[in-house]
Specification:
This protein is mainly alpha-helical. It has three helices and two strands, in the order H-H-H-E-E. Strand 1 and strand 2 form a beta hairpin.
Length: about 70
């Protein structure tokens, strides 16, 4: 299920172009709108860590940077 979630999140973020969330909190809220019911805090953290582990996002001081085209 994690791979599927990552694909859903990635597809949504790519479609946003330059209007991707810049803060971790905003990204978390965005992710939760994609999955009814919203993910629990631990599930959300795990998903964010998986995105980082794959090199798709970087988190520093609450800011998000993206490492994929789009």
């Amino acid at each position: 299920p994690m791979e599927k979630q990552i694909n859903v999140v990635l597809k949504n973020l790519i479609a946003r172009g330059n209007s991707k969330p810049r803060k971790k909190e905003t990204l978390s809220n965005t992710i939760n709108t994609l999955f009814p019911p919203p993910l629990s805090e631990p599930e959300l953290e795990k998903l964010l860590q998986a995105l980082q582990a794959r090199g798709l996002i970087s988190l520093a001081n609450g800011n998000v940077s993206y490492n994929f085209p789009g």
